[in-house]
Amino acid sequence: MSGHNKWSQIKEKKGATDAKRGKLFTKLVKLIKTEARITKGDLNAPTLKAAIEKARTANMPKDNIDRAIQSAQNTAADEKVVYEAFGPGGCALIIEGLTDSKNRTSQEMKHLLSEHDLALAAPGSASWAFTKTHEGWTPTTTVPLSEEDGAKLSALIEELENNDDVQEVYTNAE
After folding, report:
1. Distance CA 163, CA 118 (A)
2. Which pLDDT tens digit goes with each residue over 17-48?
3. HSE (CB half, 13 Å, CA atoms) of 61?
């Protein structure tokens, strides 16, 4: 009867939660480092302030935030990338990310999309369906999806968000 005691159950749940939190913190550190590098560590800059606030809402420890800002001056710059694609049912996707290698991230996005029989779209071909705001991309037109397409889209978005370089995925699906 190994694996059926209370500690094993707690360990399994805690391990899954910690792994999820660690992945989120990695993305937030990457965002904070990029914004700190752009603003040269100015804590009053709106973009760095927004990144720090996003980390605080995710319950990221203050020490981790401070270390990310400190290390921003010592590491190579990550670049912001935006990819566009059309998902299941013809819905538009905007994938925002931060990367140290545009070529590697581009190939990873192409591979992820090809696993779902999709491909990257040309720049501007999907962004027309969105408006860029300070909080992200807001859809101006929406596309209704069937249940089957909605399930495919959810699986695709989950895989995209599991990629370390992807920060946000926006869609105009209803």
Report:
1. 17
2. 999 899 899 999 988 998 898 888 888 999 89
3. 5
